[in-house]
Every structure is written in structure tokens, then in C-alpha cells.
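Much of the work behind modern protein science is quiet bookkeeping, done one molecule at a time. The protein below has been through that process, and both of its lines are reproduced in full.
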Amino acid sequence: MQMRPIIPDPRAIIDRKALTLQLDALGGEGMHGTAEQRKQALVLLKAALNEGRRVVQARFQGGTPALPTRQSLAYLTDQIIRLVFDFTVNRVYRLPNPTSAEKLSVVAVGGYGRGEMAPFSDVDLLFLFPYKQTPWGEQVVEYMLYLLWDLGLKVGHATRSVDECIRLSLGDITIRTAILEQRWIWGDQDLAAQLKSRFQSDVVAKTGPDFIEKKLAERDDRHRRMGDSRYVVEPNVKEGKGGLRDLHTLVWITKYVYGIQDTAELITRGLLHAEEHRRFVQAMEFLWTVRIHLHYLANRPEERLTFDMQTEIAKALGYADRPGRRDVERFMKKYYLVAKEVGDLTRIFAAALEERHKKKKPLAAIRAKIKRPKKLEGFEVEGGRFNVGSDTLFEKQPAKMLRLFHLAQEQGLDIHPEALRLVRRNLKLIDARLRNDPDANRLFMDMLCSVNDPETTLRRLNEADVLGRFVPDFGRVVAQTQHDMYHTYTVDEHTIRAIGILSRIESGALKEDHPLSVHVIKEVLSRRVLYVAVLLHDIAKGRGGDHSVLGEKVAEKLGPRFGLTAAETETVAWLVRWHLLMSATAFKRDIADPKTVVDFAQAVQSPERLRLLLCLTVADIRAVGPTIWNGWKGQLLRDLYYRAEEYLSGGFTGRRREERIAETKEKVRGLLAGWSKVETDKLLKRHYENYWYSNDVDTIVRHAGLMREADQSGRSLTTASRPDRFRAVTEFTLYAPDHPGLFARAAGAMAAAGANIVDAKIFTTNDGMALDSFYIQDMEGKAFDKSEQLKKLNTALERALSGDLKLRSAIAPERPGLPSRARVFKVEPRVLVDNAASNRWTVIEVNGRDRPGFLYDVTRGLYELNLTIGSAHIATYGERAVDVFYVQDLTGMKLTDKRRLQQIEKHLLKKIAPADEKASAKAAAKAA
């Protein structure tokens, strides 16, 4: 929206008068033709442009706000274009007696037409002619463009007559929007004025409703393309939901329909209240400030607020660390709050315009025909939306604010923007008295636990700031982000999405992805316990402590307020406290180890808690981000659930273990068709007890066939792969003579081939053969099953085991010049040793920043420590790698000596140290 320029000391940026004199002087004695003129003109103009940019950048970085900065950049560009135009027309292609057709106007369009530019914005120009282009005009435009391009400006241009502009804008909404922003720069001013007048009378006056409809549809399509959420971890400041383009949409519509040239007119026209206008201006200034910083830091037109940029901009804006929250997290919280503000402003404004001007959609027409009461509990129904009949309704009955959202959910209707605006003006009425009102809490619980799309209702409550006011603890996590690659959304958005996933599990909509959860949720005794637990599971994030422990206290406080019984409150608090228990056990422990199951089941204590915890865990993981969940994780959770359920029902005992092993052996014997009794007996004796307990019958039969064929052929290495697309994993089996370091070499070969190990079971037969099963995925978290992938893996494995492949050099290193996203984050290396998790094994958990070859380095370290690996469980949480190994010493015993354990920790920490730390340590050692 055009505003009066507020550029301090513009001549310090560029002095066009002085430059004009310098350019005029180029035609004097000693010059050799126009080529030399052009060369020296280019030198003068480039120096002026660079100096002007330097002045603007220095001012901005010294504290000048975004508005004068973006206007200064547009002013600088204006002066350069005027100088180029005058030089071209007066010195290169001068016309002593131009005809009426030989006129030219240079017009700025698009964002540049608004008089706003970011440091690396495109320069959108319209070269305007009265009729058709003449040879003179063609030469002038070509010369100007090449000169502007040689100056380094990214010029987008069009060459048209006034008639062409009108005709094309009627058929193309993008062209129409660009011309809407037109601003005369130089040349024939009457021609530009003619375009402005014709555009207003022939286009704008006839297409108002059409323009609104298309711009709103364009906005919705852009939101879908950008992820349809303003809470993504690396938002696009310009195009993303809640970004500058949403504010521009509002600007375009008001300018088109109402002719508004300055945002202050929004108040006088009654389109925004003074407070809303203040929020609008503040949001625009903040987003522009971030965008300008982005351009300067990237030294290019970067619009995405990437992780590394977030850190730099947080520092540039003066954010500092606070207890429980880093500077970058505080900055991003501000960003998301502004994006939320933009959403509120544009939703209320655009919906009001849609109400007045947009053509009625088929759905709206259908709704209009449905017989509904025109009034309901003090609310009016207008065009399928609930509105407030009286401006004083909420003042008299504050609980009606909750009832408004409750009714919309019950009736399946939307809420009128004027009603939302009234809600925002009365948020102060949501006080302690209302929060403790039993009826108000009943309404809230009804909405939370409703079978009618609770996700949409909670999002409406959150967008209107009602949710954060009614549940202040939730308000503390609104726009709360975690600066890592694992969490895709803010805490509030993650929580609301988790509620939506839980609702879809309950309805059966996610049966294909979560068959067990869909079955189990039907047996849950208290739905509201489950829904409240999901609502509160991350409620205490950002408070400077363990959010599970702190959240338990919040749940104990809120449960009675929500109307839960003492027993229900206790269960909710337990679920919040232990909501990470099931995923941590399934993903980081060996479920085949009986003690893992016993410890987990004893912590859970009851089948009802197990059911609740499963549903909560699935909803939580699925809501973290679109790529976090996969079939492998689902299988691990199902396996743990079934074994824990068996224990809690009394069927999981030591004797039961022996019986299961015996049953498995008998089933295998029966399935080995064509095997002699001698062969079968030999097979049954080759494996140790843990093998029979850790594998299902089908897997054992496959292994048996693989081993028999390999033994008969005499091959030293035999492999087999079996993709499982439901679990999104490929089981890769390796059968070879066992030797120290085999696991490490296999892990290195897989890393070199681009395979990601997510789990591994390592077995050794009593005659010295290794039978290892690796569960691998590609880098996108899918089954590693393409023929070329498997061929590359087998080749790498053969070369690694023979010693032909130098694994450390074969594994793709991180590029030091262009750091990966993960390198932005610092993960403190950590090694944890647990001797209580298993009766037979010492469990070692290794944490560090994920990188190519991380697992190889760890397993190589374990080999160097003379440790035998029984199983490995590999998990990645964004940039953090968490690898867990069940190990024994060479005698088959657990590790208990304290000095030995300290040696292990020290050695592994050295192995997983970041590459930059290793390089500096190596350099220091060499210098010493």
C-alpha cells in the first residue's frame, strides 16, 4: 500500500543531479563512440548503486526501521532507472522531432510499484507505449534493459500499449494485480495517467467481486502449496501462511474495491478498528524487518526463514536466552505470534469482504436452503454462520463466548467474522471466575471430547485466543517452538493436530495405518481421560525443566477444574508424566529381552493404562510432523503392546518363555518340508535360546533356507533382502563366518550405499557363523528395495568384508562449504550405560548429532573396545542420533567394572565428537 516516503537525507543515498552532470560530461572531447560512453556510464551508475545500497544497509543495521529501508531501496532504484532513461533517450537514441507514436513511459508495477523493495527484490517494469511499439521504442527499451542487467538488477519487464494492458488484465489476475500497483517512474507522464484512468474505469469498476473471489482463491491455493500451516519450522516470510503475501492480499483487495491508498484509510472507511490497524502496521513492520535481514544475511533473495537464519536474525534483533528458552526460540515465538495475528486480521477482513462481495459458492447456496433457526440462544444464523445478535451479549454472559464455538461444532456451521471480532474485544472477560465456572468447563470438555471434529473447534478457539485465555497453561505454549529438525510445528499446533489424529483413530478413518490403535481405542474406559491427556501432554514445554514432570503437576491442577474425578485426574497426570515411556522403550530397547517387557509392563501397571498410552503415543508421534511416522515405528509399538498385554494378563512368565521356544521349534520342524530329521535336529541345535525367542516362525524358516543353501554352496557371504512396505522397511539378512568387527564393517558398507539402519538383530550360531538381520530404509524413510540400491549395497558389503573398501572415505562426508541443516544445531555428545535394563546384557545408549557414518564410527568404537553386540536399535530425532546397543564382553558377561565403564564412555565420546572438533583437536595435537 503506497505511503508517503519517509526517507531521511535521500541525497546521501544517491544524488541524481550530480550524477546527471557526470553522465553529461561523458560526451566531451576524448571519447571514442557510444561504446566507450556506455562503458563509462556503467562504471558511474554501478558505483552509485553500490554506494547507495551500502548506505541503506548501514542505516538498517544501525536501527533504521523496515518501512524507510524498503522505501529507500525503491527510491534508489527509481533514481538509477531515471538516469538510465535520460542517458538512453537524450544521448544514445535522441529524437529531435518525435511523432505521437514515439512516446514512452516507464512504470513500476508489482511490489516495486508500491514503492517497497527488499535488498534483492526483482525490479518489475512496464514500458508503456501509446499504440504499438516503434523501432525507436524497441531500441530504447533494449538498450535500457541491457544496461540495467549489466548493473546487476533483476528486471522483470513487459512492453505494452495502454489497450494491451487493459485487455490482458481482464483475462489474467496476475497481470491485473501487477497493474493495480502501477507507479509512474519516468518518461511520458500523461501516458501513465491514461493507463491509470482506463484501468480504473474499464477494469476495476467492472470486476470488483471477481477480483476478490480470485484473490481469495489464489491465497487458499498458495497456503496449500506452502503446507497450509503458519507453524512450519522453516516458514516462508513472503509466501507462507501468515506471511507478507497474506497482508498484501488484504492491501490489494482494499485498493481495488475501495480505492484506498494509505492504510490509515482502513479506519476511516470502517474496515478496521484503530487497534486492529495498529496490529496490522506492527505485523507488516515485523515481517518486513525479518525479510530484509534475510536478504542481507543470505546475500540473495532468500524468503525462507531457515534454521541457520533464525539464529542469526534472533541475535540481530537483540533476543537473549531466558531460563528454559533460547534466544532463537523466543524470536520464533514472536514470529509465530505475528503470523497468528496476520491470520486473525486477514481472516476477519477477508471473510467480511467475501460476505459482501464474493459470489455465492455452491456449498453456501446449499446451506442457505437448509431450514435452520434464524436465532439460537442469543446468536443469529446468517448465511451458514453464527453471529452475535447484541454487542453486549458477552459482557452480560461471558460463558457465551464458549457457547458460540460449542454451537458451531454442534451444528456444523462456521462463525461469522464479526462475531470473532467481538470475541477478541471481550477476551478480558475470560477471567478466573469464568475459568472456574462448572458450566463453562463442561462446554469446554464437550468440545474437546466431541466426535464432531474437535481439531477444527480447538483451532478456532486457539486462533481467537480463547483457548489460551481459558486454559492459561495452554496459553504459555501458544507459538512455543523448539529449535530442532524433529519438531515440525509449534507446541500448540502439534497438540491440536494430535487431538485431530486421535479423533480420526477413534472414528476408524486411520484404520489402514493404525489397525491396533483403532481396535484398542474402542476398549478405552474413559474417553475424556484420553483426550485431556493428549491436550496436556506437552503443556509444560519451555519452562526450563523436564516437561513431563512439570506437566504432571499441571494435569493434577486442571483435572478437577475440568470436572474429572480424582481417579481420572490421577490417570491423566500419569499419562502426561510418562507419555514418552512407550516410544522410548519400543524404539530404544530390545523388546525381545524379557526384562524390557517386564520393566515396561510394571511401570504401566494396568491394561487400561496400556491402551491409553498406546493411543496417546501414536497420536503424539503422528502429530510431530508429516515424515516422522512410518510403518517400522508402528510395528515396534505393536510388538511392545502385545508383549506387555500378555504380561499384564498373567501369561508372560519364565516358564511361558520356555514353552514358547519349544512351540516355535516344533512349528519350524513341521514347516521344513524336504528336510531330513538329521538336518532338522542339527538346525535346532545350532542356535542359542535367544534366537528362538527373538524371531517369529516365518523368519526362522527363511533363515533356515538361506543357511542351508549357503552351506551347500560353500559361499563365504550370503545375503537376502525382504521389503515390507507396510512397515516401510527392508529386512536385510547377512550370513557369514563371524569375526570381530563384522557389525561395524556391515554398518559402514550400508552407510556408503545410502542405507539407513533402524534396527538390527545379531545372532551367532554355536559353530561360529554370524546370522545378522538389519532393518534398513532409504534416506526418505521408505523401504530400501530398489534393485540398483540393493546391488550397490551387496557390492559395498563384499568389498568392505574383504578389505577392498576404505569405509571412512567411502561414506559421504558433510560438505564444509555448504553446511547441512543438521550442522546448524549443536547436540552435546552423551554416552549412557544402563546395567539394569537387561539381565544378560549391558545397554549402552549413544547420543550425538546425526551425520553420515555416525553408526559406523560408534560400532567401530565398540569393536575396538572388544565388545560383542547382541542387538542394536537406531533412532533419529531430527538432527539427534540415538543409538542403543546390547553388549557383552568377549566372555559373554555384562560389564560391571567402573573403570572399564569409564573407559568405554571416554572412547565412544571421542568417536562421536563432531567433525569440526576432531579437526581442531588433530590440529592442536600436530602443533604440539
Observations:
- Residues 166 and 199 are 6 Å apart (CA to CA).
